């Protein structure tokens, strides 16, 4: 009987919330909410919080040809395809968000927000206080992407897109689409919260900027993922380019796929594109005579994706071996570039070295962590790379 009672209670716990969700997305209720798709955070000259919010217009995206136009380039409320752009200010993020309702005339609704963009100058002052509301309030979701803008976040939020009626969706697709290069990163609110609570590793976030481009004879501005923002705990300290970003990801064991271009060993010196199939890494800290040393071992498996050297004898073991050496050299160069800037110059731990040291040397870590930002600069890091080419595709020659 007790088991039956417990079973009934469990069923009620799971079924009751579902009853509240049934039919919740009718048109009347949608019209009573301002459904946020993206938020930009900047600071004003007098240190107020400035929020630029991309609000969904359900009627604009459900009816073909009903886009409100507007371009999203003006001030105040402007239509931008399937969204409305609202700008509000306040003493805090929460205050600014509430102030947006004066213009929206509806309750701001955050569960479907996809993107939070923080302006470059604003990020230099620290992002932790700016994200506190989103981490504390139950509405925002942990899978929201966090980006740092080169310039103002407002410019990114006001952008339009030819193929997507909701620009935030285009930004989301850009983030997920560039992961196959391993030269860009994808970081969400949940991952940021873990890093901020850890105090061992430092943060890195997706960078984005507005670029000028010619389109049908006219100059337009459009967003582009731009490098990786590197933070000292929560303060923006600098940027990694694509090669440095991948160097960091090699160390962390987070390179999934991508292309490495090397010069062919053949007589005509054409280019060869080597496709990354998979990769792994090991970070091994050691203590020698009281001095901390770290060895990074990276193993990569790849294949020949393209070779532009007609005279190359691609199917010989010697050719493969030389390509592997050249690929190993590129990987090592990328890793060393990331270490030189991140470890030696900035003293940030975006490589999770502290976590590995803590795991292997817990007693020594108690002292090392007190001044880890300086300690990490003096660590000797040895890099070992092993690359293996498995195959050369369907043909041995480009002809």
TrEMBL record:
UniProt-listed Gene3D superfamilies: Nutrient germinant receptor protein C, domain 1, Nutrient germinant receptor protein C, domain 3
Spore germination protein N-terminal domain segment(s): 26-209
Chain ranges of the Spore germination GerAC-like C-terminal domain: 227-393
Source taxon at top rank: Bacteria
Pfam families, alphabetized: Spore_GerAC, Spore_GerAC_N
Membrane topology label: Lipid-anchor
UniProt keyword tRNA-binding, yes or no: no
Keywords: Germination, Lipoprotein, Membrane, Palmitate, Signal
Compartments where located: Membrane
Family: Belongs to the GerABKC lipoprotein family.
PANTHER family from the UniProt entry: SPORE GERMINATION PROTEIN B3 (PTHR35789:SF1)
Protein name per the record: Ger(X)C family spore germination protein
Organism: Dehalobacterium formicoaceticum
């Amino acid at each position: 009987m007790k088991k039956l009672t417990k079973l009934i209670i469990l069923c009620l716990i799971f079924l009751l919330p579902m009853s509240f969700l049934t039919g919740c997305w009718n048109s009347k209720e949608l019209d009573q909410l301002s459904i946020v798709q993206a938020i930009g955070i900047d600071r004003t000259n007098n240190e107020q919080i400035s929020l630029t919010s991309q609000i969904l217009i359900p009627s604009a995206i459900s009816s073909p040809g009903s886009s409100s136009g507007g371009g999203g380039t003006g001030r105040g409320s402007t239509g931008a395809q399937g969204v409305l752009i609202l700008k509000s200010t306040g003493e805090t993020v929460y205050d600014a968000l509430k102030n947006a309702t004066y213009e929206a005339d509806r309750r701001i609704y955050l569960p479907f927000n996809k993107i939070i963009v923080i302006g470059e100058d604003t990020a230099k002052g620290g992002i932790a206080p700016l994200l506190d509301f989103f981490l504390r309030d139950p509405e925002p979701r942990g899978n929201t992407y966090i980006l740092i803008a080169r310039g103002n976040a407002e410019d990114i939020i006001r952008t339009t897109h030819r193929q997507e009626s909701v620009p935030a969706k285009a930004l989301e697709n850009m983030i997920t689409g560039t992961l196959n290069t391993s030269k860009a990163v994808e970081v969400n609110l949940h991952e940021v919260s873990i890093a901020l609570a850890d105090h061992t590793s430092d943060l890195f976030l997706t960078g984005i900027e507005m670029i000028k481009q010619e389109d049908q004879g006219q100059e337009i501005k459009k967003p582009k993922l731009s490098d990786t923002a590197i933070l000292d705990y929560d303060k923006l300290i600098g940027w990694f380019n694509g090669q440095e970003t991948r160097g960091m990801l090699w160390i962390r064991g987070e390179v999934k796929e991508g292309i490495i271009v090397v010069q062919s060993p053949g007589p005509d010196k054409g280019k060869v594109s080597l496709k990354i199939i998979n990769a792994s890494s090991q970070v091994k800290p050691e203590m020698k005579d009281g001095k901390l040393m770290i060895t990074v071992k990276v193993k990569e498996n790849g294949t020949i994706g393209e070779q532009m050297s007609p005279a190359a004898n691609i199917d010989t073991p010697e050719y493969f071996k030389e390509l592997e050496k050249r690929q190993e050299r590129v990987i090592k160069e990328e890793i060393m570039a990331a270490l030189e800037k991140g470890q030696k110059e900035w003293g940030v731990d975006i490589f999770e070295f502290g976590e590995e040291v803590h795991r292997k040397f817990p007693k020594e870590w108690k002292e090392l962590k007190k001044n880890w930002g300086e300690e990490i600069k003096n660590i000797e890091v040895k890099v070992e790379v092993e690359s293996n080419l498995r195959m050369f595709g369907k043909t041995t020659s480009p002809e």
